[in-house]
Amino acid sequence: MRPTTVDEVAAIVRQAADDGTTVKAVGSGHSFSGAAVTSGVHVDLSALRGLTGVDADARTVSLAAGTRLHEIPDLLSPHDLAMANLGDIDRQTIAGATSTGTHGTGLAFGGISTQIVGATLVTGTGDVVRVSSGDVESDAIALGVGALGILTDITLRCVPAFGLRAVETSGSADDAIDGFLDRVAMHDHHEFYWFPHTDCALQKANTRLDADVAPHGPGRIRRYVDDELLSNKVFRVLCEVGARVPWAVPGIAQVSGRALSGRTFTDSSTRVFVSSRTVRFHEMEYAIPLESVPDAMREIRGMIDRRRHRVSFPVEVRAAAADGLMISTAAGRDTGYIAVHRYHRDDPTDSAAYFRDVEEILTAYDGRPHWGKMHTRDADHLRAVYPRFDEFLAIRNRFDPGRVFANPYLTRTLGA
Asked: Phi and psi for 378 in degrees, rounded to 5?
């Protein structure tokens, strides 16, 4: 169903409750987990999109829940505002991104959910509820994995529009890993990518600048070669070869690693944060205490060699500030994120073994899985790593007593 008003959303939920069926909102379909899967009613929020309110003095904006992240910069530009931080993919809806804990990198910044200061949602009884920052429920609703209701609009606290200077450098994996903690403390936004089967890593550091900074850096041809030709088209071909001939993957990785080159450029924040990603993959990401990242990465490197996994995709490492949301992956601790990927055509058995081995390492560091990505954790594990887990469940019981929004994924991760 594709409602066009909040009242229509509420009517759909009430009807589902009366019929004894379930309802799930669906966004862009970017998640790798089963968070939005249902055998009941799917609610498509694509007709609920756009800017619904602006408070220039408070620097807050309200957005309909189906608004895509890539649409937001043009909506904010006339008001000289920007989102404080973003990830590198912007195809998600704002409701889907915040509900699953989408984040970027930067030790002074939380995930997108931490920018929420208000929200409207339809509960499991069909009631329309407005929650504001400061309400205890807001710590649950800002990142609720679709368990509490269907979000219909979200209010974000924004910042004045800004630019970024991006410095990308290629170097050794040892240097990237050993220096990670110092660099995330030094730079506004820092991350690195390590290429398995090599000692090659690409490091990225972004520095925040005034909004009126002029775009500067590689020309259109160089940007096309780097961002489209090498990062997508050529990389896709290499992944296809690796999927068909797994023994060739280490050699391909060496070629990819040696092709890395540094560059520096300046542009608006959105254009620097976001990258084109057209090669399909499966992904697992875990959040661990920031200080554990170097040791965990060393274990993953050793495990890949020892188990002879053949991995075409780089391992991505980022950081985020601690926050106070109930089931945020960064709740209560400065956090490092380690994300691993497999090409979507790789052998499923081999991919599953790789993800299982990485997960075993990261759960030993009190790892918390990304809610929108692949993992095998259940409610018992999550209760142990989230101090406010039962507080979240209590709010779930109030907002969805009949489990209208339940599905197999939530039953596994939150309990029945």
From this structure: -125, -175
Q: Give the three-class secondary structure for 199.
A: coil
pLDDT band at 225 (very low <50, low <70, confident <90, very high): very low
**Whether the predicted model's global pTM rises above the 0.85 cut:** yes
> 293-307 and 348-363 are packed helices; what angle lies between their axes, rounded to 10 degrees?
150
Q: Which amino acid is at 265?
A: F
**3-state SS string for 301-353:** HHHHHHHCCCCCCCEEEEEECCECCCCCCCECCCEEEEEEEEECCCCHHHHHH
- 329 close to 101: Cβ distance less than 8 angstroms: yes
Say if CB 148 and CB 129 are below 8 A apart: no
Q: What confidence tens digit (pLDDT) does each residue in 277-317 have?
A: 777 778 999 999 999 999 999 999 999 999 999 998 899 99
- Grouping H, G, I as helix, E, B as strand and the rest as coil, residue 271 is helix
* Residue of 152, 102, 109, 146 whose CA lies nearest to 131: 152
